[in-house]
Every structure is written in structure tokens, then in C-alpha cells.
Design a protein that fits this description.
Blueprint (H helix, E strand, L loop, with lengths): L3 E3 L8 H7 L2 E7 L2 E7 L2 E6 L2 E8 L4 H8 L2 E6 L5 H9 L7 H5 L3 E4 L2 E4 L4 E12 L10 H4 L6 E12 L1
Antiparallel strand pairs: 1-10, 2-3, 2-6, 4-5, 5-10, 6-9, 7-8, 9-10
């Protein structure tokens, strides 16, 4: 594996670019079974005296089953040349196809979960909080974003390790 562990305080990036514009793969599960999905919503910060990464997943997504079943998940970030792979992973379900075969991404199993050899940055998280979001509490101008899809469940993960290329 060409990724190496770095200290969290060495992590330097703009989250508006990295999360919102470049996207990431949210992955849960291990060598016995995993799924990944493309995400462009999430945030990082400091909560409960811990460095945290927060992600949201709709309950109709296949990855949701893995997020519910497992305590560890990853956020993997990639170079722009992998945009087609991320686009594929965001528009196809792992229930219906083999995303690794279709995209050529190489899963690596580390710290009890799954990441990808091609990633430039991997954040390994331990789920410390999960809660269904309540659509009735959303501001009126946010509600149309959801459309007919179910509202997300929020996962707060304590950042355990960070790997970089």
C-alpha cells in the first residue's frame, strides 16, 4: 500500500473543495463484505474532545446497511482523474453491480475496514453517534433538496487514523 499514516494535525485542505467539489467515497465493511458510495456532503470538526468526520446516508442506499452494521468507516479522497469512478459509484448501487470491477478501484483492508489503493487521502473513523434526521426540522428552503428520497441519517465518526499518499 502506498498510503502512509500521518498525524491529524498534518492534515491540510479546504473542506469546501475537498468534500463539496471533489467528492469522496464513503465506505463501510471489511474483506467479508463492504460497499462504497460517493458523497459530497459532510463536515469535519472537533466535538466531545475528539476530532470528528460527519457523513450522512439515506436509508435507501446500500451503504446504509453497512454503516448500520459496522462501527468503522472511511472517507477516501482521490485525484481528479478518478472523477469517472466516483461518478459511477454515486450513480450505481452495489446491490446491482460490482463497483470495483466497473471502476477498476482496488480495495485495501486496513484498521478493520475498507479503503482504496488509488486514494490520495483516507480518513478512518469510528462511529460514535448516529441519528435519523428529522425532515420536519429542516428549514423550508432545504426541504426541496430532498425531493421524494428519504431524509438522511447522520453519522459522527471519531477520526482514528489519517493516511496520505
Amino acid at each position: 500500500m502506498s498510503l502512509h499514516e500521518i498525524k491529524i494535525d498534518e492534515l491540510k485542505f479546504n473542506p469546501w473543495d475537498k468534500i463539496g467539489k471533489e467528492w469522496f467515497l464513503l465506505t463501510s465493511g471489511d474483506e467479508n463484505g463492504f460497499n462504497t458510495m460517493t458523497a459530497s456532503w459532510g463536515f469535519m470538526g472537533f466535538m466531545w474532545r475528539r476530532s470528528t468526520f460527519n457523513a450522512v446516508v439515506r436509508p435507501n442506499r446500500y451503504t446504509f446497511e453497512f454503516m448500520e452494521k459496522n462501527d468503522i468507516f472511511t472517507a477516501s479522497f482521490f485525484d481528479e482523474k478518478y472523477r469517472p469512478a466516483l461518478s459511477f459509484c454515486g450513480s450505481h448501487s452495489g446491490r446491482d453491480c460490482d463497483k470495483m470491477k466497473e471502476t477498476g478501484l482496488t480495495p485495501v483492508f486496513l484498521d478493520g475496514t475498507t479503503a482504496f489503493e488509488e486514494a490520495d487521502l483516507v480518513i478512518v473513523c469510528r462511529k460514535i453517534y448516529a441519528q435519523d434526521m428529522d425532515v420536519s426540522l429542516l428549514a423550508e428552503d432545504i426541504k426541496p433538496i430532498n425531493g421524494n428520497d428519504p431524509i438522511h441519517k447522520q453519522y459522527i465518526g471519531e477520526i482514528l487514523k489519517v493516511y496520505s499518499r
